[in-house]
Amino acid sequence: MIVIRTPGGLSLRLHRRSVLVGATCALLALAVAVLAVGHGDYPMSPADVLRTLTGAGSPAEEFIVTELRLPRLVTGLAVGAALGLAGAVFQALVRNPLGSPDVLGFTQGAATGALVVVVVGGSSAALAGAAALGGIGTGLLIYLIAWRRGVYGYRLVLVGIGMWAILTGVNGYLLTRAPLMEAARAVLWLTGSLDGRGWSNAGPLLALLAVAVPVLLACAPALRMTELGDDAASGLGVPVPRLRMLLLAAAVLLVSLSAAAAGPVSFVALTAPHLARRLTRAPGTPLLPAAIIGALTIVVADQVALRAFPGQLQVGVVTGVLGGGYLVWLLATERRAGRL
Predict the structure, then answer these.
(1) Which contacts (CB < 8 Å, 24+ apart) does range 272-278 have?
(2) What residues have CB less than 8 Å from 159, skipping those under 6 apart?
(3) How does the average pLDDT of the chain come out, rounded?
(4) CB-based contacts of 39-46 (< 8 A; 24+ apart in sequence)
(5) Residues 263-318: pLDDT tens digits?
(6) What is the CA radius of gyration of the chain?
(7) How many other C-beta atoms are found inside a 10 Å radius of the C-beta of residue 284?
C-alpha cells in the first residue's frame, strides 16, 4: 500500500499493484496512440509525431496530426475511459459482474434517441444530441420504475433488462421506418464507429470526464463500504440513497455522451472492469484502472479494425468480437472453478 500525505494533513492510500497496472496500461495506451497517429497515407515516425505534438513540426505535419488524426484518437480514448468507468460503477451498484450498461438498456436508449432523429431527418449534430438525451431519459425512466424506498441492485437489473428488451423492439421498428440511405447511416452508427470524429465529438465527453473522474474517485471509499451491505454502510455514516443516485447519474451521463460521440461501442463497459479487477487484485471497485483499460481497449481495437482486415471495419465490430470471446472464456473459467 502506498500512502501519500499532503502538507494540509490529507492522506491518499493507493494499492501498489493497482498503481503498477494503471501506469503500465497508460503507457501502453500512449504508445499505441503515438503509432496510430503516425499511421496513414502520410506515414510519420513516432519521433516525428512527438516533435509535431510539441509544436516543432512543419505546417503540413501539424495539420495532419492536430486536425485529421488526433481528434479521432482522443475521441476513442475518451470513449474507452468513459465506458470503463461507467461499467465499473454499474457493476458496483448492482453488485453483479454482468451489470453493464449494454445489458441494462442504457445504450439501447441512446440508440433510440439517435434513430428518432434518423427517421424524422436530422444532422449528425442532432443525432449525437438525441443519443445523449435518449440515454439520459432511459436512465431516468429506469430509475423511476425501479424506485421503491430506494433503488436496489436486483430491481435495477430486472427493470434494466426489461427496458433493454422493449427498446430493442422499438429500435427495430424505427429502422424499418427510416429511408434506405438513412437506415444504412443509422446501422453504421449503431455498430460503434470512430470514422470522421472531430474535436466537437470529443469535447463534451472530455469536459464530463474532467468533472466525473475526481467526483467518482472521491466517492470510492464510500462505495467500498456499501459492499458490506446498505445497513452496515448507513451505520458507518454513508448516505447510501444519495450516494447511489449520484453514482448512477454520473454513470448514465458517461454512457450517454460516449454513445453520442462514437455510437454504442459494445462490451467495453463489461470487460474493462473485469480485466481491472483480475489484473489489480485490489479490494473495492477499481475505477481508475477500469477507465485506463477501457481507453487502451478502444485504441487497440481501432487499430485492429483499420489494419488487420481487408477494407476497414468499425471499432464496435472488433470490441464485440473480442468482448464476446472474453465473456465466453470468463464463463468457462468460472464453471471450471465451480462458481457457476
Answers:
(1) 272/80, 272/83, 272/84, 272/87, 272/88, 272/297, 273/84, 273/87, 273/88, 273/91, 273/97, 274/97, 274/326, 274/330, 276/21, 276/84, 276/88
(2) 142, 145, 146
(3) 85
(4) 39/303, 39/306, 39/307, 40/64, 40/68, 40/69
(5) 888 889 988 998 898 898 887 788 899 999 999 999 999 999 888 877 778 898 99
(6) 20
(7) 16
Report CA torsion sign: 249, 250, 251, 254.
Answer: positive
Which residue is listed with cell 472488433?
318
Residue partners of 260: CB distance under 8 A and separation at least 6: 110, 128, 129, 131, 132, 135, 201, 204, 205
Report CA dihedral (265, 160, 252, 168) to the nearest 10 degrees.
40
For the chain, the residue count is 340
Q: What is the model's pLDDT at position 328?
A: 83
Bridge partner residues of 14 (DSSP)? 2
- Answer yes or no: is pLDDT of 85 > 90: yes
Q: Residue 67 has which C-alpha cell? A: 486536425
At 34, is the secondary structure helix, strand, or coil?
helix
Task: Detail the DSSP E strand segments found in the chain.
Answer: 2-5, 11-14
